Amino acid sequence: MSDLKHTDIEDGTEQITTDPTDAREKMRAGSMTYTLMPWIVGAVLLVIMPFIFTSNSALTIMNQMWITVVFALSYNMLLGQGGMLSFGHAVYAGVGGFAAMHIMNASDFFASFPLPVLPLFAGLFGMGLALIVGSFSTRNAGTVFAMISLGVGELIAACSVIIVAFFGGEEGISGDRTYAMPFFGNEFLQQIDVYYLTSFWVLLSAVLMYLWSRTPVGRMANAVRDNPERAEFLGYSARWVRFYSFVASGFFAGIAGGLFAINYEILTEENLNTASSGVILLVTFLGGVGFFFGPIIGAVVFTLVQTVLSLQTELWAFYAGVLFLATVMFFPGGLAGLIMMHVPAFKTGRAGTLVMPYIKTLLPAAVGVLAVSALVEMTFHVRHAATGDYDMTLFWTTFNSHSLLPWIIAIAVAVLAFWITRRNMPELRAAWATANTAREGTV
Amino acid sequence: MELILVNVIDGLVTGLLLFMLSAGLTLIFSMMGVLNFAHASFYMLGAYFAYQISLALGFWMGLLLAPLIVGVLGAGVERYGLRRVHQYGHVPELIFTFGLALLIEELVQFIWGKNQMPYDIPDILNFTAFSIAGNSIPAYKIFMIFISVAIFIGLLYILTRTRVGMIIQAALSYPRTVEALGHNVPLIFMGVFGVGTALAGVAGVIAGPVLGTFPGMAFVLGSIVFVTIVIGGLGSLWGALVASLLIGWLTTFAKSYNIEMSNILNGIGIVTPSNLEDNIFRDLWTVTSPQIADILPYILMVLILIFRPAGLFGKRHT
């Protein structure tokens, strides 16, 4: 695995650099220097969002989004920063959530502290489980780690049906968050109160996770991910470095679980089964594992796709699957990687030249994708609608899905749109090349 | 005694079915070094294709054609999907197959819907072969055993006795050298992937009528197949066989003998607490073996990975 290149830089010290043109380097975290600015913007956004989207359902979606953000960020501590692929990450969030629920139901203890403290307990329980599992699973990275995580994940998910005392069996356990000690007179009866509680924890966890990635332990996690052997020669135990990341990740996953418990007041087996673990892998990878903010984008986009698209079509999971596969195949850096590709163009000050070519290719491409999805929807309607039900509504038009005309229109639009995209592609490539070359005289 | 024999046969059927899946998976693993998460999805596709073909041409044509179609699909996935993702490294490859598994499940639901398909045992095999002390053994089970054993022998023969098998084995261990000798290694890899998925397709065709042909069938068996090859040792064909049979018998026996945890605990000298309802370990005391039969393979896998990470027959440390 020694694909790192050694280069001598000017002052004579040897440094390892990663070659950004190498395809697999796109997977790795770029070392970006952050300022305080993104955090302030994030905090302001968190505060003003409920004033823009005031409805209760919007608040629910946003809560869901922020919880997924914490969960995805904690997952990326393993996958992106530590190079550990886990197929059972939901159990740490789930166990944290179940523990929070039990604390909620222990009325005397629960009444002795305000509700905002509860996610901390959930985090500690998630961390406790991670301590136990991590003690044997972090010995190896790679396939062995992935398989142990899968095995443990399946085990705990199966136990949740058997061990009724803790997991509540099939129906799960529920509680009431309002029994906590009032927090400055607030009993968290309203959705908006819960929103700000969640926002506070999201911001706090994100800042802590970011700071963690800047500590020596966090940096060593990157080193161990890239070249465990070399890290060992430097005197660091790869196993312990992995273990610390794993435990910290379990802690933040537990916090996500605790927030879930506060929001929904019910936890079931669904919160810790393998499907949930798969979803969080999907979310994180979609956002991009190479950058710290990748999972945040992934969580926001995925939650939107899930909630908005699932209202529109039964086939949303199908589209999500296609999107995910396309991401893995064509943009392994995820959405964050896609955004960061444009940084050089902005630095040379030529990003503006990209706008027109982008419109010329992406607009017809989007139309083409919509036309193809219309074909998919029509096929689905023909196959699965009730017999005799020929009318379907798509893009605000109602038509007969068994007649030929809509099919011809959809196919024609798709072909035409993709033809235009293809024709304008060279222009975009040329514009991309010029935008990314430094101007004469500047380097 | 008779019950033991019946369970041995049942476990053998389950184990050999698992083996057909794990054999392909373990071959693909030794080739690419990556677990194919979508392997069980090809098993599901095999069942669905066979059902669709059997409607028009009957069961036997389904048994013949469905694995071929699945194999061609698998080869296509390797050629146009995995080979492309390969350049990014192992983790994206694993994630790609994971995404593919999700997509195939959605695709199957899209085409055939969410309900179970009426894919049944063909009439010619729908009789009782023999019975042991009142327990009838259907002929279809014997048929499944024969098909799986035939495939195992065929696979072993091709891999160890023929020229093609030698080249494949060499290509698995030293791809560069084999390429230098003038063989088309990417084509070999594509072929192995195709054959591996076709084997999964065969398993799907013959398991579909017994275990049911529904969109969740890949999910039910998928993770057990991984567990099998991890226990057997990644990349080892014999390991896959032993582990498949082990898991087949373990789950079958655990399901048919109702062993209670309280009996075991009493047996080793722990007395049942008097107020069991209030005890926090009450669920542990009431656990029975049929309840935990399905998670026994996972327990076994975690134990194996802790104490012998290379698996039972695994040679190298991954």
Descriptive terms for the model:
heterodimer; A: 443 residues; mainly alpha; ABC transporter involved in vitamin B12 uptake, BtuC; 3 domains; two-stranded antiparallel ribbon; 18 helices; globular; disordered N terminus; B: 318 residues; 14 helices
Describe the model.
The complex is a heterodimer of chains A (443) and B (318). Chain A has 443 residues and is mainly alpha-helical. Chain A has helices at 37-52, 56-82, 90-105, 107-110, 118-137, 142-162, 164-167, 191-214, 216-226, 228-233, 238-264, 274-287, 294-312, 316-330, 334-340, 343-347, 355-384, 404-435, and strands at residues 5-8, 14-17, 173-174, 266-267, 391-394, 397-400. A two-stranded antiparallel ribbon of chain A has the order 1-2. In chain A, a hairpin with a 2-residue loop joins strand 5 (391-394) and strand 6 (397-400). Chain A is globular, with a radius of gyration of 24 Å. Chain A starts with a strand and ends in an 8-residue tail after the last helix. Chain B has 318 residues and is mainly α. Helix content of chain B is 73%, strand content 3%. In chain B, strand 1 and strand 2 (135-138) form a beta hairpin. In chain B, helix 3 packs antiparallel against helix 4 (90-112) and helix 5 packs across helix 6. At the A-B interface, helix 6, helix 7, helix 12, helix 14 and helix 17 of A face helix 3, helix 4, helix 9, helix 12 and helix 14 of B.
